[in-house]
Every structure is written in C-alpha cells, then in structure tokens.
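Worked Example 4.2. Consider the chain below.
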Amino acid sequence: MSHQEEIKSKDFTKNWVNSSRFVFYLSVFTIVAFLFGASVRLYQERYKGTPDIEIQGSTKYTPEYK
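Applying the procedure from the previous section yields the following structure tokens:
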C-alpha cells in the first residue's frame, strides 16, 4: 500500500465508513442536546401554582361593604 492510498483511506471525504459514523454520532449528540435544552426550558417555565392575590371586598359575588 503506497503512502498516497493510505492517506486516502484515512481521509474523511473518501472513506464513507468513517464519515457515516461521524455523522451518526453528530446527529445523536445534536438530538440529545436539543432534548436536554427543551427539558431545561420547560422546567424553567413550569406552572408554579395560583398566586396569592387579595380580592377587593366590593368586587366579590356577595359584596362586603363597610
């Protein structure tokens, strides 16, 4: 095997086995990173419950006047 053929066998663009392996792992990493980012964002924007608000007595269904 000559030096030129050895370089071609290691070249990313010429060796489809190495390139497809790289693309596969890159796509898996991208999907995992996207899912992790989406999960973190959903956790930050989660429903925190109803806030404790004070309702004015005159606006209730049965108003309370002083």
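The chain is about 55% helix and 0% strand. Residues 16-44 form the longest helix (29 residues). Compare this with Example 4.1 before moving on.
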